[in-house]
């Protein structure tokens, strides 16, 4: 597994959204879904506001692979479930800070159901 470059981290985390296209059970990329992304140190994370019932999340959790696109960056990635409560607390704070102007949307992103659907996104 490779690491994000500083430029990639800055560009992706600096954008409000990214498109995520996990691999489906047949190995093809699913149609992209636009979601929020946050950064914690040198790592990127995404959550499903629908919790574990989100279709894109289910595909990402099943395949652990896909592609993200953010601006001019397109990367094949690996998805890993994040269960560490300390990391998730920092991610809650990152969501609140980055997306504070979207008050009604932030609350579901830091709720237990979304927290349970947190994935680390790593380039592959």
TrEMBL record:
The protein's name in its UniProt record: DUF2255 family protein
InterPro entries per record: UCP028498
